[in-house]
């Protein structure tokens, strides 16, 4: 299990580093589209420094990592260092091997694809317990000093890089396209880091909930938890059935409810994850509503 996790982390760091290098080499640099963080600063500095983009990226990330050396654990530091080196090597290798190759000269397309690649890259590297560079460390350090949230400070710093691109390149469109890249990058990071669960939570309120429970178990194969609710208004009594259902079983579940409990009030919500065993074990819990004094 440990070896499997180690292989997954190594693959995630490798693929993430390569994806970031693709975004920088093929989309950001050729069309002067600036992203947030170290890649964006690299694009800004490349026209003024007689260094390769990979070396600039390595210097920026290395310097930022030194600032947060005490805040990093040894494992996180080692993995981040590997990611930083791989990103720099891949970037320079791609620029050398595909020198003169233009993937697209459309800046909007470049902004979109750069955002996707950078977001996937950062998300994969985060999942491997590492960082794609020292920008996040700098954001955290400044946020602590000025007493702002990390998210707020990240927006401010990335926004500053985007605004600088307008003045450096003397092009308002550069800033507009950069904003698209930063937005898409953030969305892609969330997409990669969020667990994809196929489970849905279903709550059924019905006078026939007790009988419906057995029909659902027989026809859908899902076992739920039934809450028997005692009320002083017995003629309006409705019990509560709680289920965790795979999305593939939702259609059959709805058909069963329509057939055996047409009075039912049903709510269906997506869930991020379901853990443990016996989540849908058949159990009953009596809930008594006290009459008002």
Summary of the model, kept short:
The chain contains ten helices and five strands; from the N terminus they run H-H-H-H-H-H-H-H-E-H-E-E-H-E-E.
Provide structural commentary.
- There is one protein chain.
- The chain is α+β, with helices and mostly antiparallel strands.
- Helices cover 59% and strands 12% of the residues.
- It contains ten helices and five strands.
- A five-stranded mixed sheet has the order 4-1-3-2-5, with helices on one face.
- The longest helix is centred in the N-terminal third of the chain and has 30 residues, at 2-31.
- It starts with a helix and ends in a 5-residue tail after the last strand.
Identify the overall geometry.
elongated
Task: Please identify the structural class as seen in this structure.
Answer: alpha+beta
Strand order of the largest sheet: 4-1-3-2-5
What is the subunit arrangement here? single chain
- Give Rg in angstroms: 27 Å
**What order do the helices and strands follow?**
HHHHHHHHEHEEHEE
Strand content: 5-15%
Biggest sheet details: 5 strands, mixed
Q: List the uncertain runs.
A: 278-293
Compute the separation of the termini in Å.
59 Å
Please tell me the overall pLDDT. Answer: 79
Q: What is the strand and helix layout of this fold?
A:
Layout lengths: L1 H30 L5 H9 L7 H15 L6 H24 L9 H21 L7 H12 L3 H19 L3 H22 L5 E8 L2 H11 L5 E6 L8 E8 L3 H11 L4 E6 L12 E6 L5
Helix pairs in contact: 1-4, 1-5, 2-3, 2-7, 3-4, 5-8, 6-7, 7-8, 9-10
């Amino acid at each position: 299990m440990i070896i499997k996790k180690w292989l997954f982390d190594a693959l995630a760091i490798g693929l993430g580093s390569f994806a970031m290098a693709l975004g920088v080499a093929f989309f950001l640099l050729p069309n002067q589209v600036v992203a947030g963080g170290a890649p964006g600063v690299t694009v800004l500095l490349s026209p003024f420094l007689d260094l390769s983009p990979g070396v600039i990226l390595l210097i920026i990330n290395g310097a930022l990592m030194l600032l947060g050396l005490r805040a990093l654990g040894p494992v996180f530091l080692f993995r981040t260092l590997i990611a930083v080196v791989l990103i720099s090597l891949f970037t320079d290798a791609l620029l050398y091997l595909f020198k003169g190759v233009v993937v697209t000269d459309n800046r909007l397309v470049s902004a979109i694809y750069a955002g996707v690649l950078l977001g996937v890259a950062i998300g994969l590297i985060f999942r491997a317990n590492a960082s794609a560079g020292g920008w996040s460390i700098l954001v955290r350090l400044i946020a602590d000093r000025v007493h702002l949230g990390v998210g707020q400070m990240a927006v401010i710093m990335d926004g500053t890089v985007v605004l600088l691109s307008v003045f450096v390149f003397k092009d308002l469109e550069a800033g507009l396209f950069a904003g698209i890249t930063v937005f898409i990058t953030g969305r892609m990071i969330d997409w990669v880091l969020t667990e994809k669960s196929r489970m849905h939570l279903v709550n059924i309120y019905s006078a026939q909930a007790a009988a419906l429970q057995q029909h659902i178990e027989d026809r859908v194969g899902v076992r739920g938890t039934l809450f028997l609710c005692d009320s002083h208004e017995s003629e309006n009594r409705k019990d509560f059935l709680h289920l965790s259902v795979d999305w593939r079983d939702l259609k059959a579940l709805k058909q069963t409810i329509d057939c055996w409990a047409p009075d039912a009030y049903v709510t269906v919500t997506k869930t991020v994850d379901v853990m443990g065993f016996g989540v849908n074990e058949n159990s009953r819990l009596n809930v008594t509503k006290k009459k008002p004094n």
